[in-house]
Design goal:
alpha/beta, Sulfite Reductase Hemoprotein, domain 1, two-stranded antiparallel ribbon, 24% strand
Amino acid sequence: MQAETLAALAALGPLRVTPWRMLLVQGLRQLPDLPDVIRAAGDPIRRVEACSGAPACLQGLAPVRDLARRLAPQVPPGKRLHVSGCAKGCAHPGRADITLVATAAGFDLIRNGTAAAQPDLRGVPADVIDLKGLF
């Protein structure tokens, strides 16, 4: 979450963090439309785990957040996508149905594995990644 979004939420009332990594604005019955705030339980972005990536993380070899947002609608219900800026896999240390790991040569694609697993495809450019038919 960007600092601006958090500030906008905090301006609406006291905030509480839930055990499910959600924010609750105390006393608020209707959340105004704010950019980058997930409001629907079925939002496809909830099926994606992504770290902060480059440039926010010194280990990140590529930006990953925009790629994760772009690919989220391709992730079917019940499946998980993990997009990682490096092989450490901090955002999701467990297995995912599809894991994309940034490398110096592009993104490695791993099926049913962690960010440290052996990739099925190597060095795929971010702008051509398409997950249709991979799940």
